[in-house]
Amino acid sequence: QVQLVESGGGLVQAGGSLRLSCVASGYTSAYYDKGWFRQAPGQEREAVACISTKDGSTYYADSVKGRFTISRDNAKNTVYLQMNSLEPDDTAVYLCNAVFFSGIDEGVYWGQGTQVTVSS
User: Phi, psi at residue 11, to the nearest 5°?
Assistant: First the structure.
């Protein structure tokens, strides 16, 4: 069973930085897409950033372009989200997501989430 575990959330002042990590385990497929979603109270879940483990291609939501950077370390089965210039509107639960497109692991998987709170 594929498992995703997030870490790195916390409370920061506006303008500060955090780095989130998501470690994947329990899979056999070589390549998959991995990313971060977030959900604030009363709002829809939003895709923040995604990355392919195969070629490193990325996607960013317009609201975080220029401030957030997604990266991965395939050897460590880990994806990172470096968040700079944080704003109060970034406050949300951040959820790690992985999508496997083939093989016995095919499907969509979610972590439990980590809280990010930005104060002003």
Answer: -110, 125
Q: What is the 3-state secondary structure (H, E, C) of 23-69?
A: EEECCCCCCCEEEEEEECCCCCCEEEEEEECCCCCEEECCCCCCCEE
Mean pLDDT of each 10-residue bin along the chain, 120 residues long: 95 98 90 93 96 90 97 92 98 96 90 97
Q: What share of the chain is helix, strand, coil (3-state, %, to 5)?
A: 5, 55, 40
Provide, rounded to the nearest whole percent, the portion of the chain with pLDDT above 70.
100
Distance of CA 31 to CAs 24, 34, 54, 95, 100, Å?
12, 10, 6, 20, 7
Structure tokens at 27: 């899979």
Residue recorded with tokens 């879940």: 45
Give the model's pLDDT for residue 92.
98
